[in-house]
Amino acid sequence: MKRCHPVLVGVSGLLFAAGCLTDNRASRDRGAAGIFENVQVIAAPSVKRCDKFNKGGAARGRCDEAKYLAEVYVKKLSTGDMVCLEGGFGEEPGGGCLARASVADTATGRLLLELKDARPNSRWAAKESNQYWFEEGALIDLYLVENGY
């Protein structure tokens, strides 16, 4: 971390100019209270996946139902829960799961997932032990993708 010269604030402490701080810690270190947050955020897509289907159509109804199930699943996740990030999101991480993660933290509208292990043929293979903030919408979209929508 690069720091500028400190400015003394009374007798109680030091204040650093925010523009002079550079954070280059590994992504698994979340920083202190989010001030130096450097964990990648996986954002929800701007266009909802079910919107590509005609309203009132059978495919749209199935997609909306899958979206509802995904919302329920994601809302129930809590710290310590194991999830499958590839090859079965929404199910217990079983033999078909290519990448397993655990919920490390929660915040309003997002979950911090720590990648525990990934098979060599997974898109997460080189990212073990990293943490990622997933917006709930991104996890719901992942569920829909894995279910063919």
Please provide a written account of the structure.
The protein is of the alpha+beta class. It contains 2 helices and 7 strands. The chain has a 5-stranded mixed β-sheet with strand order 3-7-6-5-4, with helices on one face. Strands 1-2 form a two-stranded antiparallel ribbon. The longest helix has 19 residues, at 58-76. It starts with 6 loop residues before the first strand and ends with a helix. Mean pLDDT is 81; it is low at 1-33.
Map the helices and strands.
Elements: E1 7-9, E2 13-15, E3 40-42, H1 58-76, E4 82-86, E5 99-107, E6 110-118, E7 131-135, H2 136-146
Parallel strand pairs: 3-7
Antiparallel strand pairs: 1-2, 4-5, 5-6, 6-7
Helix pairs in contact: 1-2
Helix content: 10-25%
Mean pLDDT level = 81
Q: Give the class from helix and strand content and strand pairing.
A: alpha+beta
Strand content is: 15-25%
Number of strands: 7
What is the CA–CA distance across the termini? Answer: 44 Å
**Main sheet: strand order:** 3-7-6-5-4
Tally of individual domains? 1
The ordered string of helix (H) and strand (E) elements is EEEHEEEEH
CA gyration radius, whole angstroms: 20 Å
Segments where pLDDT lies below 50 for 5+ residues?
Answer: 1-33
Largest β sheet strand count, sense and barrel closure:
5 strands, mixed
DSSP summary: helix tally: 2
- Overall shape: it is globular
